[in-house]
Amino acid sequence: MIKWLFVFLLAAILSCKHSDPKPAGLIPKEKMELLFWDYLRAETFTVEFLRIDSITRDDTLQNLDMQQQIFTLHRVNRKQFYESYEYYKNHPAEMIEIIDSMVATQQRLKPNNGLSEFY
Questions:
Q1: Entry pTM
Q2: Can you list the alpha helix ranges (DSSP code H) found in the chain?
Q3: Could you tell me the residue range of the domain that residue 46 belongs to?
Q4: Does residue 64 fall inside a structural domain?
Q5: pLDDT digits (tens, 9 = 90+) for 15-41
């Protein structure tokens, strides 16, 4: 019985040590916050404005161009962004930290915490 308890405890300890490794080139949370904010703004612009008025250019191509400009601005490449995004998406606690910080930053930057349009 003690032998099985020892095996069980050893297995439990070893399984805890094998966590999901961070990918090489993982974008740090602070940088990901800024990058992800710009990425979401580009997505919103595409959905809200370009798809409504897509007479001149394909909205998907425009979105890809904007993404490339964002990646260049933040000095990352597409692969690095999507691998980091996938990592954070699979680690919800870390993703929540990024999103909470992103929202708090934007609320601090907005005058009257966004209430000015109501007054």
A1: 0.69
A2: 2-17, 29-45, 59-73, 78-89, 92-109
A3: 26-110
A4: yes
A5: 444 466 788 899 999 999 999 999 999
